[in-house]
């Protein structure tokens, strides 16, 4: 019976390599695992992920929503340059001018912050003048 078949199991026993489990606390050979203890993925060779080039960087934030809010609610005059800078960020990024897009993003952020600060100064001065100093003429006939 040596025609390429494994030898028969011993009578009344189990095949070689099979037997009673190791006693509690004993060491048993463990299969190779990934760092988290789960068996690693089995993939046929040649079917992996293709090699990828450099990861593209995302475009910088254009601060357009903040510029609109600052223009409407805070200071209209300082909000206009913020809007112009915010709308030019994406245009420059699409043209491939990454440095220009970052610069426009920085300008949009700075003009937006300036518009908010100027608006806060204006509205605070107006409220203090009307409610504390009694500038009643600024309210009209309310």
From TrEMBL:
Keywords tagged on the record: Membrane, Transmembrane, Transmembrane helix
Name by which UniProt lists this protein: CD225/dispanin family protein
Signal peptide per UniProt: none
Pro residues bias: start-end ranges: 1-34, 41-55
PANTHER family, alphabetized: DUF4190 DOMAIN-CONTAINING PROTEIN, NG5
A Pfam family reported for this protein in Swiss-Prot or TrEMBL: CD225
InterPro entries with a match to the protein in the record: CD225/Dispanin, CD225/Dispanin_fam
Region (Disordered): 1-55
Transmembrane stretches, start-end: 63-89, 110-135
Superkingdom to which the source organism belongs: Bacteria
Main localization of the protein described in the UniProt heading: membrane
Localization annotation: Membrane
